Amino acid sequence: MLAIILSFLVGVTVLGNQDFRLEPLDPRVVPPNQRTSVKPPLENSKITLKLTSDIIDYGIIRPTNPVIRQGRLEASSSASVDWSIIAFEDHPLLNKTTNEIIPDTSCDDGNCRETVGSFWTNPLAYGFGFSLEDNLFKQFANQETGENKPVITTGRRQQQITMTYKVNVAKTQPNGIYSNTVTYILVPGY
Fold first, then answer.
1. Which range marks the domain in which residue 8 is found?
2. How far apart are CA 128 and CA 177, in angstroms?
3. pTM
């Protein structure tokens, strides 16, 4: 199988200013329940995937004040090779000390999921989510619970994709440092 796997950490500090350490990830490790089959690559074809940053740090989060960060994915292929990008999180944003989580967002209307995007402008809609350039937010598929990992975008040749990450918490969210890992997989299609 020819696929490119990139992982990065998402770090959030909620109402605190504690020091924390981010440990490097091994992007060569294929997630155990990720099963993707592809046809053999075309001779001399090449695919690449790059992230502009391997850490997204939200800093200190205040209740009902959403924080938005952006990152860029750069995907490319040689010849006439189409590609797809699959993305998923290892678990919701998690405080490893207390096991508290920041859940994935359900957006303003309560209906956004891994495959269904929706608007998220209400400061009383909480959670963690992402948007591509269409401003519709979605949840990342959760590897821990075995959610299906959908394709988030497709393309051909070179393309830059702006990813918008958003987190918002309620006043009841416990203080602490929350993190998770988001993995992107670039899969060629022939």
1. 4-189
2. 14
3. 0.77
